[in-house]
Design goal:
Helices cover 44% and strands 14% of the residues. It is α/β, with parallel strands linked by helices and 219 residues long. 33% of the residues are buried. Bound molecules: nicotinamide-adenine-dinucleotide and (2S)-2-hydroxybutanedioic acid (LMR). Belongs to the LDH/MDH superfamily. MDH type 1 family.
């Protein structure tokens, strides 16, 4: 049974690795660091090493829980500027395989990032009533910049997945940080846009209905 699970996990890692290093981009091989052999946690167990920055927040906590449930994850680092000891204790009590470690405050950022394959960033502030996305930018831009400088230094080949809004501006900020550090790889920098996409679809449909137009599919 364990063997079947392992082979399923190995298959999924191979699929993800193939996606990251597709054959048609073979000329780029060598520049991309995430291969099957790299996906090993300390102690040799197979799996991805994942850090969540902003792990104690409204998005960070359920995201940490999902990552702890994910059989592809062998090491999970939870970083925040507040509350990580409690969140880490709770998440680590789940009876799944990933080893969970908590990191609190800027002085532990580098330790949290070292050796990671994937860094997910929901760190920052969310909008409060009356705030615009521009208001978020003023705060979150600086936070994302600092975190990405840490990534460039400690895990330059990690995949970076930005959630902090405004994501259409935080992704370019991350790109500029990585370019400056000489570590930029567009295949490894992602932003979560699903919320804005479904929100836009809903607004379009609502407006169409309000002015008496029918709709079939909005996308
Ligand atoms: N992309 C999307 O689809 C999407 C959807 C919803 C929210 N968001 C954005 O995600 C972000 C987080 O939202 P939330 O509801 O979890 O907010 P939250 O306030 O509940 O959590 C944010 C967390 O970030 C932490 N944090 C702040 N500064 C930090 C720093 N310098 N380093 C590390 N951690 C830091 C805070 O301590 C907090 O725990 C916001 O910017 C929000 O706008 C994005
Ligand atoms: O900026 C917002 O739209 C609020 C919240 O952070 C979200 O992304 O929904």
């Amino acid at each position: 049974m364990q063997e079947t699970n392992n082979s399923r996990v190995n298959q999924r890692i191979a699929t993800i690795s193939a996606h990251l290093n597709p054959p048609r981009f073979s000329h780029m091989e060598g520049s991309s660091g995430l291969g099957r052999a790299d996906c090993r946690a300390k102690g040799g167990s197979t799996g991805f090493k994942v850090a969540i920055l902003g792990a104690a927040g409204g998005i960070g906590q359920p995201l940490s829980l999902l990552m702890k449930m994910n059989p592809l994850v062998s090491v999970l680092h939870l970083y925040d500027v507040v509350n990580t000891p409690g969140v880490t204790a709770d998440i680590s009590h789940m009876d799944t395989g990933a080893v969970v470690r908590g990191f609190l405050g800027q002085q532990q950022l580098e330790e949290a990032l070292t050796g990671m394959d994937l860094v997910i960033i929901p760190a920052g502030v969310p909008r409060k009533p009356g705030m615009t996305r521009d208001d978020l930018f003023n705060i979150n831009a600086g936070i994302v910049k600092t975190l990405c400088e840490g990534i460039a230094k400690c895990c330059p080949k990690a995949i970076v997945n930005l959630i902090s809004n405004p994501v259409n501006s935080t992704v370019p900020i991350a790109a500029e940080v990585f370019k400056k550090a000489g570590t930029f790889d567009p295949n490894r920098l992602l932003g979560v846009t699903m919320l804005d996409v479904v929100r836009a679809n809903t607004f379009v449909v609502t407006t169409k209905l309000a002015i008496g137009l029918s709709f079939f599919v909005v996308n």
